[in-house]
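Researcher: I'd like a structural prediction for the single chain below. Treat it as a standalone chain; there are no partners to consider.
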Amino acid sequence: MSRNFKQKTVRVYADEALLIEKLCDALSTPDTKVEMSTLLVTAAVEEATLLGFTPAVPTGDPAVATRPPEWKYDAPERKDESYGEQLSVTAHPLELAAVEQAAAWANVKLQRFFMGSVLRFAAKRKAADPNNPKLKSIKVPPRFTK
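Model: Treating it as a single chain, here is the predicted structure.
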């Protein structure tokens, strides 16, 4: 019997892990808690979709003519020893295939695509919900707000 999910490890700095935790808390409600893995996958699938890579067309939708010339939201390059935290991301293979294709197109490592996507997601959610005090308190580098 095969599993209906895959796990990937995303290595992040401790401050990035804290930002993800705060974002999960800001997006959670009394009835539902947003998990870190779910947030990372949701953000990465959204970015992949904006680039034309979807679970339906993971190799890239030829109908997407507005793909930008580059993806400018990747996290900075780091040395392996600089990572402080490891997050286990659980994703459905359909979602993961689209995200992997988008990361390859963007010419960034998968973990950088996940981190850049979540920072972009945070910036967009802050703009969409300016009255959420928890979102307001989250600092996102300015380049992710453009």
